Q: What sequence folds into this?
């Protein structure tokens, strides 16, 4: 009897250990969200709540499997994650990017401003799907795959303004992170701002995300509806002259992307 029962007990213990280790390993990978490209063990431990010894042990396994790379005692995400991500079927951000990049390239060639494409995630954050910039372009805190609070960004406000009442309520109900002294945080001002965006179809970030930056954004609406698929923006320095037709160029580009999305089944 003892011999027969032992395998079941052992299997149960291994499964429990695997579940715990898997959760901790995922927490280590999640620590890189919004934290920059390179982190040390102490930073990872602090962000995950794990001990440094546990974080170090998990990192060693992740490095061995190429999910994380090590460089001079600091760590960055590895190529294995990129390889796996590329295998995700029906990946909406990837399909959206494929539909939008040709239009974004034309927009960048015309304006030479930094072009962003983003989607709304979990109602209150934006996820950057693509970013086009070149030599001399303004430096921005955004990055492809990165997230920002929706109400601090032009793309976020452009999407929230055209979203359902539940999404608008969710964004107005929680405190807005004040990234700069110019970030709008009062619910009454934010509500009025969203009303104007809905009326004009254009959103602005006037140094609300980072001082010295100005952003003009428009929603990409699903063809024949007012449902936002994504948002498109141009970012420049505040001291740069912005042509009057920029909003119209963005609207045109957003319509082109919406048409392309329809052909991609989005």
A:
């Amino acid at each position: 009897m003892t011999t027969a029962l032992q395998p079941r007990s052992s299997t149960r213990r291994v499964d429990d250990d695997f579940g715990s280790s898997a959760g901790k390993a995922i927490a280590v990978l999640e620590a890189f969200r919004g934290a920059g490209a390179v982190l040390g063990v102490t930073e990872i431990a602090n962000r995950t709540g794990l001990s440094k010894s546990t974080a170090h042990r998990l990192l060693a396994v992740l490095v061995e499997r190429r999910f994380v790379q090590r460089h001079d005692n600091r760590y960055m995400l590895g190529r294995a994650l990129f390889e796996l991500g590329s295998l995700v079927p029906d990946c909406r951000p990837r399909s959206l990017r494929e539909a939008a990049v040709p239009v974004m390239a034309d927009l960048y060639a015309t304006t030479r401003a930094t072009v962003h494409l983003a989607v709304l995630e979990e109602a209150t954050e934006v996820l950057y799907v693509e970013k086009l910039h070149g030599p001399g372009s303004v430096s921005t805190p955004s990055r492809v795959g990165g997230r920002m609070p929706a109400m601090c960004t032009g793309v976020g406000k452009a999407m929230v303004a055209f979203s359902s009442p539940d999404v608008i309520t969710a964004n107005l109900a929680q405190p807005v992170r004040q990234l700069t002294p110019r970030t709008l945080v009062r619910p009454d001002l934010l509500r009025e701002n969203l009303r104007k965006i809905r009326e004009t179809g254009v959103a602005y970030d006037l140094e609300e995300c980072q001082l010295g930056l100005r952003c003009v954004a428009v929603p990409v609406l699903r063809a024949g509806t007012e449902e936002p698929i994504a948002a498109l923006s141009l970012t420049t320095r505040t001291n740069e002259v912005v042509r009057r037709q920029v909003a119209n160029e963005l609207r045109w580009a957003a319509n082109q992307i919406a048409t392309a999305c329809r052909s991609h089944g989005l």
Notes: The longest helix spans residues 2-30. The mean pLDDT is 84. The chain has two domains: 2-85, 92-263. Residues 2-85 form a domain with the Arc Repressor Mutant, subunit A fold (CATH 1.10.10.10).
